[in-house]
Design goal:
Blueprint lengths: L7 H8 L7 E4 L1 H6 L9 E5 L1 H8 L5 E2 L6 E5 L2 E4 L8 H6 L2 E3 L2 E3 L2 H11 L2 H15 L4
Parallel strand pairs: 2-5
Antiparallel strand pairs: 1-2, 3-4, 4-5, 6-7
Length: 138
């Protein structure tokens, strides 16, 4: 695991002061936090309740292009009010791994999502996750 909390995206997320129980980092940033990949291109955050309400006061919710629901872009941070069909937002946040006080959607969920999407970058990430898990690094 790297010192993810020092990355500018994570510092910006923490600076928002969102209630920790109402959001979880998701997408490729989970891989970054686990040391599976280098620098993430952005930060995706699954948010609900008070965290979503606070973010909605800072940016305009818009339909998300890849899944049902809404997203709010604050610079390089994308806040999502739900994940892909078949996953429950509350369960993903409640069952998230906690690393240095931040919740991260579980690696197996990220792997399943990337396999489902099937884009070249996602499939590369699936291979990297599998290698990481095979080495016992999670």
């Amino acid at each position: 695991m790297n010192r993810f909390w020092e990355h500018e995206y994570f510092r910006a997320l923490l600076a928002l002061g969102l209630p920790a129980e109402d959001f979880a980092v998701t997408g490729s940033a989970v891989l970054y936090a686990h040391g599976v990949i280098g620098d993430p291109r952005d930060l995706d955050v699954l948010a609900r309740g008070k965290a979503w309400d606070r973010v909605a006061r800072l940016g305009e919710p818009k339909p998300t292009p890849l899944a049902e629901g809404a997203e709010i872009a604050l610079g390089d941070i994308q806040f999502l009010d739900r994940w892909f069909p078949g996953w429950d937002t509350d369960v993903l946040i409640d069952e998230a791994d906690v690393l240095h006080g931040l919740r991260f959607v579980r690696l197996e969920v990220i792997r399943a999502t990337k396999a489902m999407l099937g884009r070249p970058r996602d499939l590369e990430h699936v291979e990297l996750i599998d290698a990481h898990v095979a080495k016992g690094l999670t």
